[in-house]
Specification:
Layout: H1 15-22, H2 26-45, E1 48-49, E2 58-63, E3 66-71, E4 78-79, H3 101-104, H4 112-128, H5 142-150, H6 164-167, H7 169-181, H8 192-204
Antiparallel strand pairs: 1-4, 2-3
Length: 215
């Protein structure tokens, strides 16, 4: 008999599938993001760099305890020991739209801070239903992504989501968190633990985020 790979089935599917099925509002999406950030913080506490964070590598477990996001697909993961920065021969590791500038340009290997850039892209996917470097309603195009990345453009801009940000306090607060994740200087990005704090505060009081990342 040929060997078989048996995988656990998660009823909720990916965040995109879960949101399509359940029509989540802004606050419910933010609650989901808190759980995702807690998952990233957990793997970083265990000295693991994921290397391929994106919405399709997160699944939603539905249990008696509630809705629990799970970070999956550790095929690109490495141990983050003693500040090591891991470079991959194959740049296809890590889906291109989610890769941080320093990794994409060869200035650095994968680190927890490059994971945080990708986490910002996941937040964009969940809160705004948008793929990085793709305007809402557009079909993702790799050539457009390459062009925008060569021009040092961010995966999205505030103007892409007006007037929503002016009308939705939760969306405004979450957009501010994304901005922290997309700092071009990796050392200025929040840790995963700080990201959890930011998102929790956004959930309880979005105005707290205007003063910066809690330390």
């Amino acid at each position: 008999m040929d060997p078989l790979a048996v995988c656990y089935y998660y009823e909720g599917g990916t965040p995109r599938e879960f949101m399509e099925e359940n029509k989540l509002n802004s606050q419910e999406r933010l609650r989901l993001l808190v759980g995702i950030a807690e998952g990233v913080a957990h793997i970083h506490r265990n000295s693991i760099v994921h290397g391929d964070l994106k919405g399709d590598n997160i699944v939603i477990e539905i249990s008696h305890e509630g809705t629990i996001p799970k970070v999956t697909d550790f095929g690109s993961s490495r141990l983050a020991c003693l500040g090591c920065k891991y470079k991959h021969i194959n740049q296809q590791v890590g889906t291109f739209q989610w890769i941080s500038p320093e990794v994409r340009q060869g200035d650095s290997g994968w680190t927890t801070r490059s994971d945080i850039w990708a986490a910002g892209c996941v937040i964009l996917e969940v809160q705004f239903n948008t793929i990085p470097y793709t305007r809402r309603g557009e079909v993702p195009c790799l050539m457009n992504t390459f062009r925008k990345q060569r021009a040092n453009e961010l995966p999205a801009t505030r103007g892409d989501f007006e007037p929503l940000l002016s009308l939705d306090g939760v969306a405004e607060a979450v957009w501010n968190v994304i901005g922290y994740c997309w700092e071009l200087d990796p050392d200025k990005r929040p840790s995963a633990e700080e990201l959890v704090i930011c998102l929790r505060q956004a959930y309880s009081n979005q105005d707290l985020l205007r003063g910066g990342i809690p330390r």
